[in-house]
Amino acid sequence: MTSLNSLQNVIYEPGIPYVGTISEPLEPGTSIVLRGHVPGDSDRFQVDLQCGSSVKPRADVAFHFNPRFKRANCIVCNTLRNEKWGWEEITYDMPFKKEESFEIVIMVLKEKFQVAVNGRHVLLYAHRIPLDKVDTLGIRGQVTIRSVGFCFSPVPKSDMPQFTLPYVAKLNSSMGPGRTVVIKGEVNTCAKGFNVNLRSAKSRAIALHLNPRLNSKAFVRNSFLQESWGEEERNITCFPFSPGMYFEMIIYCDVRDFKVAVNGAHSLEYKHRFKELGDVDTLEVDGDIRLLEVRSW
């Protein structure tokens, strides 16, 4: 879950329907975080990113996010332009349940909106209206909203020079408890998988091998020690990657294990098999992604 401390302009318990001006321009990297609860009698609710708040004529809606519970459980997304709806994009992988709480994170990217619910990626929606037209947030329907907050932090631009893959580089300092590696990128639209390795340069040992496989939705972890692979670990609550999505992966080295988070949600832990952590000094990244940024400290 996203920390409230990292959010700006937080609005608590807004009345529904809610219509409010967004205080800063929506730019790639902005996240909108909504926390709330679905009542037991809810048929539907909607979150709209609007171009103004006009009622007559109705303001354009750049992104209409509309979970529906009656008949088929689904999320309908659309755009309203000149008081006419476009074509619906429907997601049947429904993350909302009646009488349960939720956290929605809408991340603004250069070419699309990316939505996660309760830390799980749900959908992508390509822009049909320029971002600079969007200045208003609307919430309507049968829903209780506890808070709305914004995070105005830029993401690396996908049109910037990218890292060439395979990427191999020394870490700023050798691995050990408290060390962190951050990898930012975008999964290719037809991706099968990619690899992230933390290894020792002076030997062939790989202390941590991360291998998300999109075709099977498996997040494989392993180590390569004494010239052989060990036993794979695959257990995971939910697979955090999807074709076309932007991601920020954080690898944190703790005393007993590596902890991995994706887009702010804890994903897995991997107990250390390679004990000489101080020898781990190299990062490798390869596979079906656009690598945008790498940092370590």
From TrEMBL:
Top-rank lineage group of the source organism: Eukaryota
Keywords: Lectin
Residue ranges of domain Galectin in the record: 18-151, 167-297
Gene3D superfamilies: 2.60.120.200
PROSITE patterns: GALECTIN (PS51304)
Keyword DNA-binding listed: no
Keyword Oxidoreductase part of the UniProt annotation: no
Protein name: Galectin
Native organism: Vicugna pacos
